[in-house]
Automatic annotation (TrEMBL):
Pfam families in the cross-refs: FA_desaturase
One GO CC term, this protein: endoplasmic reticulum membrane
Membrane-spanning intervals of the chain: 42-64, 71-90, 102-124, 191-208, 220-238, 287-306
Signal peptide (residue range): none
Protein's name in the database: Fatty acid desaturase domain-containing protein
Entry text on domains: The histidine box domains are involved in binding the catalytic metal ions.
UniProt keywords, alphabetically: Fatty acid biosynthesis, Fatty acid metabolism, Iron, Lipid biosynthesis, Lipid metabolism, Membrane, Oxidoreductase, Transmembrane, Transmembrane helix
Membrane-related topology note: Multi-pass membrane protein
Cofactor(s) the record lists: Fe(2+)
Protein family per UniProt: Belongs to the fatty acid desaturase type 1 family.
Source species: Oryctes borbonicus
Principal cellular location given in the protein's record: membrane
Biased composition (Basic and acidic residues): 383-392
GO MF term (any one): iron ion binding
Length: 392
């Protein structure tokens, strides 16, 4: 049940604010989204983002009049610091999907500092909150509040009280025990100024005599804006446009587009279904450059104890809760109707009833609609019955 402002006493200060504070004892599924909640802009952040974007776009224009090496340097910084976020902040620290040696952790925290997306500790806490309370008011970028909010609006809005109360309940003891993470947290501002601003901007000036202002615009402002939007697409587009082969009850989807831009973070329905999997996708390296890098790191001993998900567990989940778009479900739907092992029909995912009805995993698939209409084809007793004639 979503928090309801009608439940708050009229004279409560929380009612004047227009939202409910006490979500502390509610379960994730009970928090929901309170559509009466009026989010308030944090004006310094909003103005800061507008200035950042204006300078970032100007930097893209300046690229045409600067050394080409500066643009390559910017792309290299985006790729390297992006891996600091995806491998370091996301898969290693937020999900503990593998373990890393001290030197790998040091390198990943350094690259994550270059990305400038807040310190590792806060990044991980927000992301754990996102997974634990996905698409509810306790999710910092609740996708039920729309594309813009989940993309970047959340960073310029006052937090929903549920984000604050539930954020305090997230177990961060593993990060608190990590010297590298806590060192970065304590010295984040000077480290940010050095690794996200000073060094990236100064290198092109030193090495190929780039104009200082051009370097600042391209290697700081444009780089920052591009990487932010790529990262944000995982919270926005990958919760809106795509299929849900593993769990149709969640908003997270499989997105080739987001996976391409984020080098492997867009297989988001899988990732939300199996968040501990270091591949963040079912099919591994060919679908994720980041997974390939982790495999390389593991082959030289820097990463170890990589966690994956057994195929049969993935298939059972797809059968039980997916939208029927998983290849296993498509194959199963056709083969399940065949008592002699022969195909009774061409593979056609529209025949698969998971999108509309129930699945029996004993080799027999039945269809019954939840939207009130009759299906054209029904799998029952090992045969396909064409129901479309009945209505004629
Ligand atoms: Zn995640
Ligand atoms: Zn997500």
């Amino acid at each position: 049940m979503a928090p309801n402002s009608k439940d708050i006493p009229v004279d409560s200060p929380d009612r004047k604010k227009g939202y409910v504070v006490d979500t502390h004892l509610k379960l994730p599924s009970d928090i929901g989204t309170d559509y009466n909640f009026k989010r308030k802009w944090v004006w310094p952040n909003l103005i800061g983002f507008i200035i950042l974007h204006l300078l970032g776009f100007y930097g893209i224009y300046v690229m045409f009049y600067s050394h080409f090496q500066t643009t390559f340097w910017m792309i290299l910084l985006i790729l390297a610091s992006g891996e600091g976020v995806t491998i370091g902040a996301h898969r290693l620290y937020a999900h503990k999907a593998f373990k890393a040696t001290f030197f790998l952790r040091l390198g990943l925290v350094l690259l994550q500092t270059v990305a400038g997306q807040n310190c590792m500790y806060i990044w991980v806490r927000d992301h754990r909150l996102h997974h634990k309370y996905s698409d509810s008011d306790a999710d910092p970028h609740n996708a039920n509040r729309g594309f813009f909010f989940s993309h970047m609006g959340w960073l310029m809005s006052r937090k929903h009280p549920a984000v604050i109360t539930k954020g305090k309940t997230i177990d961060m003891s593993d990060l608190e025990a990590d010297f590298v993470v806590m060192f970065q947290k304590f010295f984040y501002k000077p480290l940010y100024l050095l690794f996200a601003l000073a060094l990236p901007v100064t290198f092109p000036v030193w090495l190929w005599e780039e104009d200082y202002w051009n370097s600042l615009l391209i290697c700081y402002f444009s780089r920052y804006v591009v990487l932010l939007h790529i990262t944000w697409l995982v919270n926005s587009a990958a919760h809106f446009y795509g299929t849900k082969p593993y769990d149709k009850s969640m908003l997270a989807v499989e997105s080739f587009f987001v996976s391409f831009l984020t080098v492997g973070e867009g297989w988001h329905n899988y990732h939300h279904a199996f968040p501990w999997d270091y591949r963040a996708a079912e099919y591994g390296t060919s679908f994720s450059f980041t997974t390939f890098i982790i495999d390389v790191l593991a082959s030289v001993g820097l990463a170890y104890d990589l966690k994956t998900t057994p195929n049969d567990m993935v298939q059972r989940r797809a059968m039980r809760s997916g939208d029927g778009s998983h290849q296993f479900c498509i194959d199963k739907a056709v083969k399940a109707t065949d008592a002699n092992g022969n195909l009774l029909a061409e593979k056609d995912k529209n025949l698969f009833p998971a999108q509309t009805g129930e699945i029996h995993t004993n080799g027999d698939v039945k269809s019954n609609l939840t939207n009130g209409k009759s299906p054209d084809k029904v799998f029952a007793n090992g045969k396909i019955h064409d129901e479309s004639d009945k209505d004629k």
